[in-house]
């Protein structure tokens, strides 16, 4: 009852609907949407109250096992927001949109990305998996098309022929990845979010997102690891 005490207005509902239709929304766009929804619905608006606004929505989503989560882009460190279904695994979420063979290709791509040193998998390595799938073999042309769809649907990002996990995918699958790749998956030592693309301390092994590294060491003449104090 305490969780449900804050009233969910039409502004909250409109904000939630847009987030769900977008799949993922960049932080500055979320702030603009927050202002627009409040002003349209003529409810109290304050520029620094977005987190409180989202918390009210989340309190009403809790019985539905859903939540608006905040994540950080590994490319530039910008905040993003996505609606996550807590009652389903990542496979269940994707099963309604993709065939069994497409899901198998995604899982194998996930393996390549997470087990890599830099958080990327080349298109060549992924396409070489196409004729090794257990469900059935997939032609490379088909696999190329499936990868294109994964990028369009914001599960993967592609840059110069290399693939990594989209920010949306990291937000939605963080707990799954941390649970299923315990030996290799790590959280950023600064922001505590899952780190796929990261720099790693050669001494103690902690990892940090590249944007977090830039922020943490800004202005330092001799950057040292925040955990073991060795030269970074």
From TrEMBL:
Which domain of life does the protein's organism represent?
Eukaryota
Enzyme Commission no:
2.3.2.27
The reaction(s) annotated as catalysed by this protein in its Swiss-Prot or TrEMBL entry are: S-ubiquitinyl-[E2 ubiquitin-conjugating enzyme]-L-cysteine + [acceptor protein]-L-lysine = [E2 ubiquitin-conjugating enzyme]-L-cysteine + N(6)-ubiquitinyl-[acceptor protein]-L-lysine
Please provide the record's keywords in A-Z order.
Answer: Chromosome, DNA damage, DNA recombination, DNA repair, Metal-binding, Nucleus, Telomere, Transferase, Ubl conjugation pathway, Zinc, Zinc-finger
Q: Where is the signal peptide?
A: none
Looking up Pfam families in the UniProt record yields: SMC_Nse1 (PF07574), zf-RING-like (PF08746)
Compartments it resides in:
Chromosome, Telomere; Nucleus
Biological process GO annotation list? Answer: double-strand break repair via homologous recombination
Q: Which GO terms describe its cellular component?
A: chromosome, telomeric region; nucleus; Smc5-Smc6 complex
UniProt domain RING-type: residue ranges: 188-229
Gene Ontology MF: a single term = zinc ion binding
The answer to whether UniProt assigns keyword Zinc to this entry is yes
Major site of localization recorded for this protein = nucleus
InterPro entries, sorted: Nse1 (IPR011513), Nse1_RING_C4HC3-type (IPR014857), WH-like_DNA-bd_sf (IPR036388), Znf_RING (IPR001841), Znf_RING/FYVE/PHD (IPR013083)
What does the function comment of this entry state? Answer: RING-type zinc finger-containing E3 ubiquitin ligase that assembles with melanoma antigen protein (MAGE) to catalyze the direct transfer of ubiquitin from E2 ubiquitin-conjugating enzyme to a specific substrate. Involved in maintenance of genome integrity, DNA damage response and DNA repair.
Identify its protein family.
Belongs to the NSE1 family.
Quaternary structure and partners: Component of the Smc5-Smc6 complex.
Q: What is this protein called?
A: Non-structural maintenance of chromosomes element 1 homolog
Biological source species: Rhodinocichla rosea
The beginning of the lineage is: Eukaryota, Metazoa, Chordata, Craniata, Vertebrata
